[in-house]
Amino acid sequence: MLQSVRYSCSQGNLITNPIKRLFAMKRASKSKETSESSKKSKNDSQEVSSDPASASSFSKTTSTTSNSLYSTFQENRISCALDISQFQFKKKRVRILSNVKEVDDCRGPIVYWMSRDMRVQDNWAFLYAQLLALKLELPLVVVFCLVPKFLNATIRHYKFLLGGLEEVAAECENLKIPFQLLMGPAKDRVPQFVEKNGVAAVVCDFAPLRVPMQWVEDVKNNLADTVPLIQVDAHNVVPVWVASDKQEYGARTIRNKINTKLGEFLTEFPPVVEHKYKLKKNLDSVDWKKAYNSLECDMSVDAVPGVNPGYKAACAQLENFCRRIRLFGEKRNDPTVNALSGLSPWFHFGQISVQRCVLAVREYKGKHKESVEAFCEEAIVRRELADNFCYFNKNYDNLKGLHEWAAKTLNDHRKDKRTPCYSLEEFETCHTHDDLWNSAQIQLAKEGKMHGFLRMYWAKKILEWSESPEKALEIAILLNDKYSLDGRDPNGYVGCMWSIGGIHDQGWAERPIFGKIRYMNYQGCKRKFDVKAFVARYGGKVYNKK
Fold first, then answer.
1. Domain ranges of the chain
2. Residue 424 to residue 446: CA distance in whole angstroms
3. 234, 236, 284, 317: least CB-packed within 10 angstroms?
4. Residue 104: what are its φ and ψ, rounded to 5°?
5. Which residues contact 313 (CB under 8 A, 6 or more apart)?
6. Which residues are CB-contacts of 404 (< 8 A; sequence separation ≥ 6)?
7. Is the peptide bond preceding residue 420 cis, with omega within 30 degrees of 0?
8. Distance set, CA 43 to CA 49, 76, 459 (Å)
9. How far is residue 307's CA from residue 316's CA, in Å, rounded to a whole number?
10. Nearest-CA neighbor of 406 among 453, 356, 473?
11. Region (Disordered) spans which residues (predicted)?
């Protein structure tokens, strides 16, 4: 009987021929969905004092350290629903990319092709894949495609990525869900895996950047006509295609569009659970040593000591932030104070859900309203604005993507004298005349991060001291992507485009080199925070160009 049953990906119900309709009704009654949200267990972790003098926002807690949030989150999921089949899944999170819209369960397993969101729990794409598999009584398999090099990624990034994936693989094993690390480009490896294993459907992540979007397009074109390719935005709280249908001008134009939808999308998650439908064949175990040996990336930029990858480490970092959340509202723009969450590396690699972190932080709104609201603005509105820009503007990393006024003003000042004018090598080795800029670059190279306020100053000075706006943007993106753990991210591209090209900003008083692009200077930083203390911490020196 199962061979006659199809699952409609778009409508969420079983499609049968008239003879099998009774069978379908019985199955549908078993999977009756309940309310999507329930009262969450309140996190009673008590605030402790933090050291404002420390600017290191990365927790040194290892992934094996016990932390209460990890357990609390699991309890919250179970109280929400026993599994995804008992949860009212938001179909707006899903879009079907292939021409075929139905899953035929006469085939083999459902495959979740993991890429941007490298976690098991609190992952809408993983949950949707399990929902399909449970409703059709099919096995579930997770695959990840590892390419030997990717843009400017270094061994620092690959170690963080692979370390997180090892944790994913272990959790999948505990849940009786096979995990496969496919070596090579997705356009070849995913269709090959689908054909070899008779896969019924492929569920994939959403990413707005050029290369991963091309991966998805290539896989779609190379899949058999009978295999649906279904995409789920598991990275944003409000799916990018729901938040807006156009490139937004700035935070003020997208904020209300997102905030009015949070009641619908900012919900608790059900758990990914042990999968009861087992794959009949054994798949190859992952050879992690072979994976590392396959890499062809830059090996000169190594991992950041004490910053551990994976979901457990991310939970520890979140718990660390919650203890000092009172500082965020007032001190988040001070690079000498440990006020930021430090979660961006785990957000970038999808090792923890932004939505999960927002739910946790909102528990403190009664005591620290300003801090919580500021965090939600940055974690939701600003991050989703960055995805919006990269999704709707294919020139998100070059000056063709600028607004007309910004492109014109930079061009009008193209021939302005630039003194000094530095090369990429001088920037990268921290050999400028500005000890604050050099200290910020040292922090980036050493710690794999740069304080958010200093990222703006850092990029704007690259514009001021480079031979052209094009060269400035190229250098800023290269250095950010090479050293920052959250490099090659929509937020990084938008940050550089904001600083150098005025994206999501307005015109300001005209001045040399910058034109009407917002200006920042050393004296302004001195008014904001203790520049001497920051420079003393990182040791940036003054180098006078000969």
1. 66-392, 399-538
2. 18
3. 284
4. -95, 115
5. 59, 61, 62, 63, 307, 346, 351
6. none
7. yes
8. 18, 10, 39
9. 11
10. 473
11. 26-65
- CA of residue 211 relative to chain centroid, distance: 15
Judged by DSSP in three states, 509 sits in coil
The answer to whether 292 and 37 are in contact (CB under 8 A) is no
Residue 180 belongs to what H/E stretch? strand 179-183
Cα 383 to chain centroid distance, Å, stands at: 9
Could you tell me the fold of the domain covering 66-392? Rossmann fold (3.40.50)
Dump pLDDT digits (tens) for 502-542.
999 999 999 999 999 999 999 999 999 999 999 999 999 99
Tokens of 497: 């485009």
At 318-349, the pLDDT tens digits run 999 999 999 999 999 999 999 999 999 999 99
Q: 283 to each of 69, 196, 278, how far by Cα in Å?
A: 34, 11, 12
What is the residue whose two structure tokens read 């999921």?
A: 77
Q: Which of 228, 242, 235 is nearest to 96 (CA)?
A: 228
The two three-digit tokens of residue 261, written as one number: 């939808």
- Look up residue 416 and give its two tokens: 């302005």
Burial of residue 403 (number of CB atoms within 10 Å: 0-12, 13-18, 19+): middle
DSSP 3-state of 202: strand
DSSP calls for 351-382: SS-HHHHHHHHGGGTTT-HHHHHHHHIIIIII
Residue with tokens 């295999």: 227
Number of residues that make up the chain: 546
Q: Which of 535, 522, 508, 539 has its CA nearest to residue 465?
A: 522
CATH number for domain 399-538, candidates 3.40.50.2300, 1.10.10.1760, 1.10.260.40, 1.10.579.10: 1.10.579.10
Q: What is the pTM of this model?
A: 0.89
Per the CB < 8 A criterion, the answer to whether 200 and 62 are in contact is no
